[in-house]
Design goal:
Shape: elongated
Helix content: 55-70%
Largest sheet: 2 strands, antiparallel
Strand content: 5-15%
Distance between the termini: 35 Å
Order of helices and strands: HHEHHEHHHH
Strand order of the largest sheet: 1-2
Number of domains: 2
Length: about 110
């Protein structure tokens, strides 16, 4: 399962919460929606989609570290705040942003 798979099933915010809480853990997706799955998915629709796609499977929740950094930057969070949130240096965030082909923070602010 990739971060993009989680985003498709749950939405970006719920995928970020799930990866932040359970990164690297193996979870069992039951064949019917349970209270625990509903809590992990964040919504009934997300839980239903997880059951439809992975019922009876064990899946590893990805850390999605780079994906989460990019999502935070795209949502308007500053490089500094993203670094603090993710527990990395500002330089690491700038490198990920650059690799993703996004504009640096100063260029985005000037464009607005």
């Amino acid at each position: 399962m990739t971060p993009n798979d989680l985003e498709r099933m749950l939405g970006a915010d719920a995928a970020m919460r799930l990866m932040a809480r359970r990164a690297g853990q193996v979870i069992y997706v039951p064949k019917v929606v349970t209270a625990l799955l509903l809590d992990m998915a964040g919504s009934q629709a997300g839980a239903d989609q997880m059951v439809a796609d992975h019922a009876g499977d064990r899946v590893i929740i990805p850390s999605g570290r780079k994906w989460r950094m990019i999502h935070l930057i795209k949502s308007g969070m500053s490089t500094r705040d993203t670094a603090l949130t993710m527990g990395v240096t500002e330089r690491a965030v700038r490198q990920i942003v650059s690799q993703a082909g996004l504009q640096p923070e100063t260029d985005r602010a000037d464009a607005a």
